[in-house]
Amino acid sequence: MKSFLGVTAHFGIDIELHSVTLGVYELDERHTSDYLSEILLKVCQDWKIDLENVTIVVTDNAANIVKAIELAFGKRKHIPCFAHTLNLVAEGTMICTEWRNIVSKVKSIVTWFKQSCIASDELHKATAAAMETPAGVKLIQSVDTRWNSIYYMMQRFLELRSLLNDILFRHPRAPAMLSASEIATVTSVIVVLRPLEAATKEISGDKYCTSSKIMPLVRCMLSKITSAVIEDPVAKEVQKLAINELNKRMGSIEHVTALAVACILDPRFKKMHFNDAIACSKAVAKIKGLMMKKNLQTNEEIESDSDKSDKNEEAFSLWTDHHKLVHHNWKINKSENVLSDELSVYLRTPVGRLNENPLEIWRDYKIQFPKLYKIAFKYLTIVDTSVPSERLFSQAGLVMTEQRNRLKGKRLNKLLFLHSIEKNIGIYKEKNVLAL
């Protein structure tokens, strides 16, 4: 069985987010971190991507790929895929034996309907008549690697339970229907897991800002799950497990610098969703440091030109270096005050509406906050899931058809790249995030 590594690049142009396929690379050696890091560096080299221009690399939580990113790009440039982490949270709730058994029962019922043409036809007729839709409604089968498929399977099962019960009753060899208490458990667990499903759906896009939403989503998920009033004992255990998993895997999310900076620089959130004052102050300090760095670079360019013209005009003085230090110190203090004022004024502006595009808001802020604008654009264009690179394998299936079954890897990658280019974009100038 062959293994592949999918790589996509994500970046912003004006107020829009864009992505492009860099390729699907066959892995013909053991998947060690050293080997994977070599592949990634080769990808950047082939596409002439300067490593300094890569803001963040997003991958799943597998130890080998995480280590590979650290070797190739540095530890600070890695962020685990938020959707994959949510998947691990949901998997953690399956520790509850009673809930796992109920899921297995529902899965066996769904499998039976999928495998029995007679039962499937009966369900189709029953749903078409009950819901007045000619196509009817089908059961959903869960997929082990996608926790939300379990959620959708259970949700659809609840919707059709009365019809399913009638059909199962007519077939002696059919799996047993869930008991009333088990149905009550499923109903309550759906309430517990709904925030996880909503968050997964919220951050699975790559055409809108997601990095700044991670902290608010984690806080809102915990609040919803914790405040849910659950009476069923099995569902209560699932609720407890979900809270513990969220705290274990995302309890320190505020200390992930890139996500904290993105949250503060999103006009819809700013500092509202910080629980840890130290994490908030560190993120603010990081923003100030980035502003100072950009400002000093600009000043040094101006000074280098002026120093050349003044060099010959200076009279000899033993205190020349002292005067330069005084002048430099005065400029730094002045710059710090100006930059600090820019950030303070931004933080005092009214919070934007949740349905607004933060990049559109920043387009209006560009003149008022010129230094912050560049930093905001850099961090808000981070895509915090590896979902786009996973979709890449579906695209590869469309490109690698039976009529093209002799395509070599290099040619396939070129076709995938061309397939991914949006028609309204001519030239890509900036690469911001790699998703693996």
Automatic annotation (TrEMBL):
Annotated GO CC locations: nucleus
The keyword Nucleus is annotated on this UniProt entry: yes
Pfam families recorded: Dimer_Tnp_hAT
Record keyword Nucleus present: yes
Location(s) in or outside the cell: Nucleus
Single GO term (MF): protein dimerization activity
Keywords, in A-Z order: Metal-binding, Nucleus, Zinc, Zinc-finger
Span of domain HAT C-terminal dimerisation: 342-420
UniProt-recorded name of the protein: HAT C-terminal dimerisation domain-containing protein
